[in-house]
C-alpha cells in the first residue's frame, strides 16, 4: 500500500477527556443511586416501626459514609480532569480502576450495615468493616495509580497546573489508603464501631483537601484567585 495511505500510529495514541469524563459521571451517578437501595423498610410487628427504624442506624451511617465518599471522589475527579489535557491508554486504565472500585462500594456498605445491626461487636461485623476498609483503600490506590501515571507523563496535563498538584494528590491518596487500612485494623482489634466512625470522617479529609493540602502554596494561591 502506498505510504500516503498509511495513518501514523501516534495519531491514535491520545484522545481528549470528554468521553472519559461523561462515562465517569455516569458511573458515579449509578453508584450513588445504588447506595440508597440498602435503605429499606425493616420487618416489624404492628406498632413497632419506630423501634425497627432506630435499630437499623448502621444502615444510615453506612449510607452517609459511602455517599460522602463517592460525592467527594466525584468532586476531586472533576477537579483533576480540569487539569488533564488528554488521555492515553495508561490513564484510561487508571480511571477505569477508579470506577471499578467506586461502583463496587454499595456491596460492602450493605454488608457492614447488615452485620452491625445483627451484632455490632461480633466477628462477622469485624469481617464486614475489613471488607469495607479494603475496598475503600483500593479506591485510594486507584487514585495513586492515576497520579503516578500523570507524574510519568506530564505531557498529558495542562501547562498551567500548580507545580505540586500531582505530588500532593499522590500524597493524599496514600494517606487515605493507609487511614482506611488502619481503620480496618482498629475495627478488628478494638470494635467495628471505631472503623465505622472512621469511614464517616475520612471523606471530610478528602473534601477539605480537594484544592490542596492545608497550608500548601497551591491552596493559598487558588483561594486568592
From TrEMBL:
The keyword ATP-binding does not apply. The chain crosses the membrane at residues 20-40, 60-77, 89-107, 127-147, 177-206. It holds the Pfam family TMEM175. It is found in: Membrane. It comes from the Bacteria. It catalyses: K(+)(in) = K(+)(out). It is a multi-pass membrane protein. InterPro entries: TMEM175-like. Keywords: Ion channel, Ion transport, Membrane, Potassium, Potassium channel, Potassium transport, Transmembrane, Transmembrane helix, Transport. Belongs to the TMEM175 family. This is DUF1211 domain-containing protein.
